Task: structure prediction
Amino acid sequence: MVRWLALLFLLMAAPAWAEAKPDLVLTGQVRGADHQTYKPVTFDVPDGVIRLTVEVDYARDQKTVVDLGLLDPVRFRGWSGGNKKRFTVSAEDATPSYLPGPLPAGRWTLLLGVPNARPGSAAAYEAKITFERRPGAVGFAPGPLKAAPGWYRGDLHMHTAHSDGSCLAQSGVRAPCPVYRTVEAAKARGLDFIAITDHNTTSHYEAMAELQPAFDQLLLIPGREITTFQGHANVFGPTAFIDFRLGDPSVPDIRALQGAVAAAGGLFSINHPSSPSGEQCMGCGWTVPGTDYDQVQSIEVANGGSQRAQGGVEGPLFGVPFWEARLKAGHRITAVGGSDNHDAGLAPDTPGAVGRPTTVVHAAELSTAGILAGIRAGRVFIDLDGTRDRMLDLSARSKSGQAMMGGVLIAKPDETVAFTASLTGGERAGLEVIRDGTRLPVAVGPSGAFTVKMGDKASWVRLNLRDAGGRLLLIGNPIYLRVGR
Result:
């Protein structure tokens, strides 16, 4: 009866993240004789594993207490005692209490410390071991922070002490800025997600993994800025190292780099493409020959540092002309923004402060996979002031169907396509209708309605919002019109 109750406890207590099928399930019992001993539970890790997750639960009805630790075939990997029942280790990051590093094949040991087991007791335990063999987008939270679909606001470009981010120390001198300062600033701004994108490194993931449980309303997305001599690009999602040495034999051309990002499950986003290059700003503008724009998922058209440098959003550093040129060439690429913050202490109303500009993404859930899927789908607009309430959306309807911002709509030549703009926090009179890079003399009605006649070739339509003085406030992504017969 005791054993049956213990097994029933394990089934009832299984958390939601335990639904994924593990590679190994190790079961056994902690008995009274194990009191104040260390019980090794061994398992074999095969070649090619790049990430290992352990989930442990046990019956507590007899006051049995179990602590956890881990050893690989070579070294001690960590000890979390009784404060965790799930942990992950990989080459680049690990759950706090555990050490990142290579995952050697061979005999590993899950160490069960037993501070207490009553005489004659027998408590069932179950350890689920999951191996990841292929790189892919990951998160530092065990599940979505919010499971509901909605518009989520975030910052996709930020730097810390792990590259060239700095802020004021206690004495007032400038010092390398720790990750937590950026996370705290994002929380204060009311953001839903951020991607910290230090240059070429992956060292900041350890700090992000440590901070994520304490910031359970702010999603921390793995990111890095791939910095080459011909351009910079953010990669979102994977944590595994991606070689950035463009032009070196290891990465002979941009196709090799883009292929490595795709193989890792990453999203490739070109940064500040219109910035100068050369001695003014080494490799800042995008000049990489042979770029496969079908393998570019987004382009940073609004950069906070550029806005501060040129005294406004629009100017020679503005990324929209570069982006729209790729749209005109037939590529579907999502426009995003990023603060490019290098000082978490910047005043919130300063361009380049955390969350200014803000990228707003409609996602099925607040998770790394959800936000990246929303960006890929083009369900995105950019709030240049980083407000908490401005909203912009676009829908369209033809005889063939309907589409939302980021989607594709089929229409016949000369067919009138009905559009509807949805706007919060601005005046409809400030809406601009942009078709193929040109502003149309189209008035948006009180209900947000306007029409565009389909031509005889592919096209795209999107929205901007300006204030009464003409200052750009919001940048929308297109609906893509395709010719049907």
Notes: The chain is about 15% helix and 35% strand.
